[in-house]
What does this fold into?
Amino acid sequence: TPTVPTMSDATPTPQEILAAIPPAPLDHRMVIEYVEATVERVVARMPGEGNTQPFGLLHGGATCVLAESVGSVAANIHGAPTHYAVGIEISCSHHSGARGGHVTATATPLKAGRQLATYNIEITDDAGSPVATARLSCLLRPRPSGPPSDRAEPR
It folds into this structure.
């Protein structure tokens, strides 16, 4: 299993960080593609097509999934290797509807502490216009120690 680089490690390349992100079934279902991951920011994109509400606009819930995905990856990069992140609060303001194309989410830390990490997530359309702004707070939990067979995986 690849190890997720941390802020305390030698500076990993963006390719090393992206390769260490484990695949998430919901990311696959929503067709979320990570394009950049550093300790300073995580960027991912998602198609509008297939993620719309009945009137053809990008679904607000899909926007929140994208926001929580990039924020959670960012928090897990921050906490690794000793802690893992679990989302405890998300808020999202929708600024405009998106039709077709892709939306891109960029997560940057507002505060990355030892027990709590909070991220600002800006979501834009293909033209760079704001679609939504979200904020995600994650609790950083200690990773269980011991051999993998003796511990439960984080949920």
